[in-house]
């Protein structure tokens, strides 16, 4: 069943046929409303996020002065899965993955921060928060745990200097005799493992939009480049070796996309399968690293130079093989689930 998009997203999408950046086969995955949503997030992300991606990476600094978070909030991206009564859009994981893909396409690190905020934090509150907690925290959309800055006993350690995803700040959270009031308990007491582990399935699904966005970003760089760059009197894209790389990059992207969005659709229909949620990010993350390596290769020397975004795309892609449980752990989960099944 198709839904109507909120007015803000409709306006941003504009009228008219699907734009060229939408690959032909992505339309097999999405209905018209989802296509429209993808286009509107794409435009938003390319206008407001992509221009800052290189500087965020170089400075390892999230530009608070650009108000990206507020702009994304005004666009209602933070509350995609939140019920409308709490100011969200009440959309599902299909939409959440689409947003993650397009934001990551503009900047992997902003995508990662977005995934952590909208899924690890807000979606967990949606799933497990008491009515009072939802009332208090959802419209504001704050931390991953219901611990507030300034609470006695809670502090953060130094910002970590990372290989990639720079500007998406990461640090250790330090708890020293931190007192948590009863009303801040999320989900049932003693059921924390369930709260986090079941949330991890959905985190893996939604984060899998990240490597998809990065693979698309690789093609966004490579395709114009191989058309324009000439060697031996011909565009390098005419060489079959290069066409083979393009084919491998494209099929990696499209197979990951099909897997991710079919699992997202299942989750929206209430069928959350642990091995599939681990499977989508296992597959997409490893493909993204390979695609980023091929993107560097397609650009030759330029691919290795930081003036071009390919190095950043590789460094950002690698994170998805580690965060939200490593590839090894995902394989363990899938193997264990398959072994359990009769
Ligand atoms: C940028 C970034 C952001 C992050 N954000 C968050 C966050 O928001 N919230 C959060 O909770 N965590 C976060 N993490 C932590 C992340 O989830 C962990 O780093 C990751 O799960 C791996 O755990 P570890 O670093 O302790 O590695 P280890 O567990 O020490 O693993 C080291 C190696 O051993 C392998 N290994 C470990 N156990 C086994 C096993 N049983 N069988 C086979 N191989 C095994 C691993 O696969 C890996 O290759 C983040 C990490 C990074 C880098």
UniProtKB/TrEMBL annotation:
Cofactor(s) this protein requires: FAD
Keyword Flavoprotein attributed: yes
Stored SUPFAM superfamilies: Acyl-CoA dehydrogenase C-terminal domain-like (SSF47203), Acyl-CoA dehydrogenase NM domain-like (SSF56645)
Keyword Glycoprotein: no
PROSITE patterns, per the entry: ACYL_COA_DH_2
One Gene Ontology term of the molecular function aspect: flavin adenine dinucleotide binding
UniProt keyword terms in alphabetical order: FAD, Flavoprotein
GO cellular component: mitochondrion
Superkingdom, natural source: Eukaryota
BP terms from Gene Ontology: L-leucine catabolic process
Residues in Acyl-CoA dehydrogenase/oxidase C-terminal domain copies: 190-338
The Acyl-CoA dehydrogenase/oxidase N-terminal domain, residue ranges: 32-141
Family: Belongs to the acyl-CoA dehydrogenase family.
Protein name: Isovaleryl-CoA dehydrogenase
């Amino acid at each position: 069943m198709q839904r109507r998009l909120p007015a803000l997203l409709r306006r941003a999408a504009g009228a008219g046929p699907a734009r060229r950046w939408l690959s032909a086969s992505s339309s097999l995955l999405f209905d018209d409303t989802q296509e429209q949503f993808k286009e509107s997030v794409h435009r938003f992300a390319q206008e407001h996020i992509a221009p800052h991606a290189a500087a965020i990476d170089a400075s390892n600094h999230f530009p608070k002065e650009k108000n990206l978070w507020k702009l994304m909030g005004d666009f209602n991206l933070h509350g995609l899965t939140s019920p409308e009564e709490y100011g969200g859009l009440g959309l599902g994981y299909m939409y959440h993955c689409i947003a993650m893909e397009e934001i990551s396409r503009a900047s992997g690190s902003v995508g990662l921060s977005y995934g952590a905020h909208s899924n690890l934090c807000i979606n967990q509150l949606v799933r497990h928060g008491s009515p009072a907690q939802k009332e208090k925290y959802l419209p504001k959309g704050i931390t991953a745990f219901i611990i507030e800055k300034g609470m006695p006993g809670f502090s953060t350690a130094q910002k970590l200097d990372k290989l990639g995803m720079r500007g998406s700040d990461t640090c250790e959270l330090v708890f020293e005799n931190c007192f948590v009031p009863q009303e801040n308990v999320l989900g049932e007491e003693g059921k924390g493992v369930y709260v986090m582990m079941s949330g991890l399935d959905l985190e893996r699904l939604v984060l899998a939009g990240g490597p998809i966005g990065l693979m698309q970003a690789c093609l966004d760089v490579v395709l114009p480049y191989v058309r324009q760059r000439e060697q031996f009197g011909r565009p390098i894209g005419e060489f079959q070796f290069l066409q083979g790389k393009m084919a491998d990059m494209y099929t990696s992207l499209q197979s990951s996309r099909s897997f991710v969005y079919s699992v997202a659709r299942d989750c929206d229909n209430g069928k959350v399968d642990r091995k599939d949620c681990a499977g989508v990010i296992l597959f997409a993350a490893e493909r993204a690293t390979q695609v980023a390596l091929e993107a560097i290769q397609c650009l030759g020397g330029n691919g290795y130079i930081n003036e071009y975004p390919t190095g950043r795309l590789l460094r950002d892609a690698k994170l998805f093989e580690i965060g939200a449980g490593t590839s090894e752990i995902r394989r363990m989960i899938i193997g264990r689930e398959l072994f359990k099944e009769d």
